Amino acid sequence: MDFKPFIRDIQDFPEVGIVFKDITPLLKDAQALNNASNSLYDLINSKKIDKVVGVDSRGFIFAPMLASKLNAGFVPIRKVGKLPYDTISESYDLEYGSDTLEMHNDSILKGEKVLVHDDVLATGGTAKAVCKLVENLGGEVVQCNFLIQLTFLHGASKLKGYDVKALLNY
């Protein structure tokens, strides 16, 4: 299925000069949503996965679906102050500022195989921070999965050494 007709560009969001890739048209179409979920699953190629990490907030959409299909646990990565238990954190830069992510300090066990999922790979800062969080707890990042990769921002270059897959490339 061609998913590009279900992705719309929003000019100057969240800041002037940014073209935001809006996935909500894909999400509201039942067939596109189901096909995208299945296609993201197919990118994994039968790898053993113990946990699927989903990144706040749009990574929360497909990550639990993938976890269910993989018979794996789901781990939310949130912005600072959103998780109720003891956390570890990692700060990073993005194309229009900087931010910090957190995860519970007991969410990944040493040696667990982890799939990192987010909706968009842009500059790679978010995904790199998530990989560091997983590895700080002793997990092994098996793959970084994205619905969309903005190749012109060269985010995959920050993820050297990781298996990076995306359904759509712009």
UniProtKB/TrEMBL annotation:
Outline what the protein does.
Catalyzes a salvage reaction resulting in the formation of AMP, that is energically less costly than de novo synthesis.
Give the location in the cell: Cytoplasm
What assembly does the database describe for this protein? Homodimer.
The GO terms this record gives for MF are: adenine phosphoribosyltransferase activity
The transmembrane segments are none
Subcellular location, principal: cytoplasm
Looking up HAMAP family in the UniProt record yields: Aden_phosphoribosyltr
Residue ranges annotated for the Phosphoribosyltransferase domain, each copy included? 38-148
Sorted alphabetically, the keyword list is: Cytoplasm, Glycosyltransferase, Purine salvage, Transferase
PANTHER family for this protein: ADENINE PHOSPHORIBOSYLTRANSFERASE
Fetch the SUPFAM superfamilies from UniProt. Answer: PRTase-like
Q: Which domain of life is it from?
A: Bacteria
Q: Which InterPro entries match?
A: Ade_phspho_trans, PRTase-like, PRTase_dom, UPRTase/APRTase
What EC number(s) is this enzyme filed under? 2.4.2.7
An example Pfam family from this entry, by short name, is Pribosyltran
Q: What is this protein called?
A: Adenine phosphoribosyltransferase
Q: Give the metabolic or biological pathway.
A: Purine metabolism; AMP biosynthesis via salvage pathway; AMP from adenine: step 1/1
